[in-house]
Amino acid sequence: MPFRSKETLEQWVSDFHDARGAGDLIKVVVQDGSDGGDTGLVVVPLLNATVSVFMEPLEIGDAQWRITIEPQPDTTILNSHQLQGMAAELSVAAELCAYLEARSVGHEETTEA
């Protein structure tokens, strides 16, 4: 079944960072797929919040991705500059998600048995 390995996603995130000049804190972490394969999970930490944003394909092999924002344990209080910074971080996350969807179209990668 086609999927995106952690290694592939790390390369795509690196390519995005090189092209966009943003997202240097974005990382790919291990996420085990249903078949035990390493499918990767893209994490976008937010500097002015106590949560992270993470993204993954809707299903293994799907070109469409979803973004999840974790619930916050605490209330976030920001000034206007911090809110603008958070908006910029969320904008980069949205751009990255669109980039990953574009890279996923037609991508074929299979686990080695």
Describe the overall structure.
By secondary structure, this protein is α+β, with helices and mostly antiparallel strands. Helices cover 35% and strands 17% of the residues. The protein has helices at residues 6-20, 80-104; strands at 27-29, 41-45, 52-57, 65-69. A four-stranded antiparallel beta sheet has the order 1-2-3-4.
How would you summarize this macromolecular structure in one to three sentences?
The protein has helices at 6-20, 80-104, and strands at 27-29, 41-45, 52-57, 65-69. The model has no long low-confidence stretch (mean pLDDT 84).
Return the average pLDDT rounded to an integer: 84
Q: What overall form do the CA principal axes indicate? A: globular
Q: What spatial order of strands do you see in the largest sheet?
A: 1-2-3-4
Order of H and E elements: HEEEEH
Tally of DSSP helical segments: 2
Unreliable runs: none
Q: Which structural category do the helix and sheet elements fall into?
A: alpha+beta
Main sheet properties: 4 strands, antiparallel
Radius of gyration over all CA atoms, rounded: 15 Å
Helix content: 25-40%
- Strand proportion: 15-25%
Total DSSP E strands:
4
The end-to-end span amounts to: 11 Å
